[in-house]
Amino acid sequence: MVNLHGVVNTIRLVAEFPFVLRGIFGARSIKQSGHIHINTVNAVFHFKTCRWSFAARSNNKCESSDSRKERNVFHTHGNVSESMVLSERNKQHLSSLMKEKIIALAGQIHNDVVSWRRKIHANPELAYAEVQTAAFVAEHLRSLGLDVTTEVAKTGVIGLLKCNNSESKCVALRADMDALPILEANAVDYCSKNEGVMHACGHDVHTANLLGVASVLSELRNELSGTFKFIFQPSEEKIPSGADAMIKAGALENPKPACMLGLHVSPEIEVGKIGFHAGKFMASSDEIYITVIGKGGHAAQLHNTVNPLFAASEVLLELQKVSDAKKPVVLNFGKIEGLGATNVVPEKVEIAGTLRCFDEQLRFELHKFIKDEAAKAALRHNAKCEVNILQGYPVLVNDHETTAAAKLAAADILGEEAAIDVPQRMGSEDFAYYTHHVPACFFRLGVGNAAKGITSAIHTPTFNIDEDALKHSVAAMSWMAVKLMQE
Ligand SMILES: [Zn+2]
Ligand SMILES: [Zn+2]
Question: pTM surpassing 0.85?
Answer without folding.
Answer: no
